[in-house]
Design goal:
The chain is α+β, with helices and mostly antiparallel strands. The chain is built from eight helices and four strands. The protein binds inosine-5'-diphosphate and magnesium ion.
Length: 156
């Protein structure tokens, strides 16, 4: 099982879209194993987005991400990193495919509602930035036996 970091950005929280977006992940069959509303500090935003430092949109991005609370989530499932990225859609709201979160709920290129880790390495790094030990909770779901086909011995 893979766990990925999802952030519902300030625009998603302010626009009252948290519930709709969480529902998409739940209905997909993914499991929420961590969640908290928080205000991202300047330092945390800079660390999280360190790869974007120096880019033209960087200052605006940090200002946006620290401007209002976000909802951070740890989302678990087989292949959850790639699945969540696909559900999010392309980076720019103006280009994101209908059916995706960004494609359905936004038009802006910078206020694009959601962040999701883009690789296993990024997920491990980002989860440890946003969740302290013990804040990601391993819990079992009886429905797991209907979300995955485990007849071969391992979930598929
Ligand atoms: P991603 O969120 O789809 O992984 P990245 O390229 O990693 O996209 O960019 C991080 C975030 O920076 C984006 O989600 C978006 O909020 C913002 N961003 C990226 N490129 C631009 C741009 O060209 N203009 C304005 N904001 C941008
Ligand atoms: Mg990215």
């Amino acid at each position: 099982m893979e766990t990925t970091l999802i952030i519902l950005k300030p625009d998603a929280v302010q626009r009252g879209l948290m519930g709709k977006i969480i529902t998409r992940f739940e209905e997909k069959g993914l499991q929420i194993v961590g969640a908290k509303l928080m205000r991202i500090s300047q330092d945390l935003a800079a660390t999280h987005y360190k790869d974007h430092q120096g880019k033209p949109f960087y200052n605006g991005l940090v200002r946006f991400m620290t401007s209002s609370p976000v909802l951070v989530m740890a989302v678990r499932g087989l292949g959850s990193i790639a699945i969540c990225r696909k559900m999010m859609g392309a980076t720019f709201g103006s280009k994101a495919e209908p059916g995706s979160i960004r494609g359905d709920f936004g038009v802006s290129n910078s206020f694009n509602l959601i962040h999701g880790s883009d690789s296993p390495e990024a997920a491990a790094r980002e989860l440890s930035l946003f969740f302290a030990p013990g804040e990601v909770i391993d819990w079992s779901r009886p429905v797991e036996t209907w979300v995955y086909d485990s007849s071969s011995g391992k979930p598929e």
